[in-house]
Amino acid sequence: MPISGTPNRSELVDHLVRTRIAGDVATPRENNLSHYRKLANGDRNFWLGLELGDRWTDEQDVLAVMAERCGVNDDPEFRYGQDTIDPELTVDALDRMAARLRKSAAAKERVLFATGHPGGLLDVHRATAAALRAAGCEIVVIPDGLQTDEGYVFQFADVAVLEHGATLWHTHSGEPMRAILTGLEREGRPLPGLVVADHGWAGCAGQFGIDSMGYADCNDPALFLAESEGTVQVTIPLDDHVTSPRHYDPMTAYLLNAAGLA
């Protein structure tokens, strides 16, 4: 069960490993390598709203970044079995995100939240949005009537999501974020100063030149590559859909406390 209250760093690391948010995660090595290869081969479904050009055409280069920033096994000969996320890297990234959230709160910035993984991360984003609103930030309200080829772009509990068939939809696409940002421009409204998201929502925002931070799994390398290039400010490595969304609560509590938003 999730630990109660706000954990310290060592308690959070233990919790992440116990709930498999980090440590020995469920994502198999062969799935990770397949995604790294597809990204390197130019499959834009794995670019997560970013424009990577021809900068990452060697899957071994992608693996090296993922080993450094996510904590997957760095041995290119390890091709089957269980892969890993380093929980210390997860907490390091949470600390970096907390520092940027603290800056947003001090400046009372306009902040946009979005998720392509509502089954796991919706409440993480919702709680962070509520904390920033309480600190005086404006949480961006997205334009009405937005849609993409996949479905409709709605806002639920302050978090932008994709809706399809009366269901919140899992998506890696950057098109929903593109629809929001171009919709804001069309209405003559200012763009957010910060986007906190995941998947293509975070990648597309960073590609637009907006400060962007996101959560990413070990089989979604694009945001880690973008962080290494400076297009995305912070990428937090974690398993983005574990057995219960409540397992993320201690992580959220740690983040908000570190940001001075608890």
UniProtKB/TrEMBL annotation:
InterPro entries per the UniProt record, alphabetical: Phosphatase_SCO2771
Protein name: Phosphatase
Pfam families linked: Phosphatase (PF15698)
